[in-house]
Design brief:
The chain is mostly helical. The protein has helices at residues 3-30, 33-58, 70-98, 101-108, 116-149, 152-175, 178-202, 206-228. It has a domain at 70-228. It is built from eight helices and no strands.
């Protein structure tokens, strides 16, 4: 494929993924009832399937799976523990002043997250499945498309920005706090840049996934404390 055509295709792929992710979150948070939840599920299905179909039918690449090396376990584990400590430490120091539990509960109630068992099931999904899904979408697909558009560190920054946008909507929707939204979005951007850098370094999702799962575990722990304590 000519370079100009590759760039146009990469830009189209980014627009299709990023717009769907953002519209889905808006529908989930602000469109009441089954309509909002249904549209959110549709957009999730779209951003899950599109990368596979794109790589298979348009990029004509073969898919492969490798197991994590010892180094990837170690780097991912230590990086994830650092992120877990930063997230939980930030909440312990400032979260009680900045997050209104009643706002969070009002957003969680329509999603069935005010029942402890329901939240625990969500936390397991969020920690182990959501982290993998996000790495597959935002590093394996989106970051690689960013490298077609811009070189080196610019691709890392662009991918991190794409990753951050829907988190801005989600952070404000669940907390109702602009300070949490701003600081949290900066944290998401930095994490996204670190994970894109890890993918560039190792050409594997394992470091990204292991550390991402630990970061999501910290968020799940914070969510439990906000909703149930």
């Amino acid at each position: 494929m000519p370079k100009s055509s590759s760039r146009r295709a990469a830009l189209l792929a980014l627009l299709l993924i990023v717009s769907a992710a953002n519209i889905g979150i808006v529908a989930r948070l602000y469109v009441p009832g089954l309509a909002g939840q249904g549209f959110f599920v549709m957009t999730r299905g779209w951003i899950l399937l599109l990368p596979l179909l794109w790589v298979w039918r348009i990029d004509r690449e073969r898919l492969s799976l490798t197991w994590p090396t010892r180094q990837e376990w170690q780097v991912g584990g230590w990086l994830g523990l650092a992120m877990l400590g930063a997230i939980y430490g930030g909440y312990a120091l400032f979260g009680h002043q900045w997050i209104d539990p009643e706002v969070a509960r009002s957003r969680a109630a329509p999603l069935g997250l005010l029942q402890p068992l329901g939240f625990a099931a969500f936390a397991v999904y969020f920690t182990f499945v959501n982290a993998l899904v996000e790495e597959y979408i935002w590093r394996w697909f989106v970051y690689r498309k960013c490298t077609v558009l811009v070189p080196g560190a610019w691709a890392v920054a662009l991918a991190a920005l794409c990753f951050t946008l829907h988190h801005i909507v989600s952070l404000f929707g669940f907390t109702g706090s602009w300070i949490v939204t701003v600081l949290g979005s900066i944290g998401v951007f930095v994490a996204g840049a670190v994970w894109s850098g890890c993918y560039l370094r190792y050409q594997s999702l394992w470091v990204c996934y292991i550390s991402h799962a630990l970061a999501d575990l910290a968020i799940a722990i914070v969510g439990w404390q906000i909703l149930f304590t």
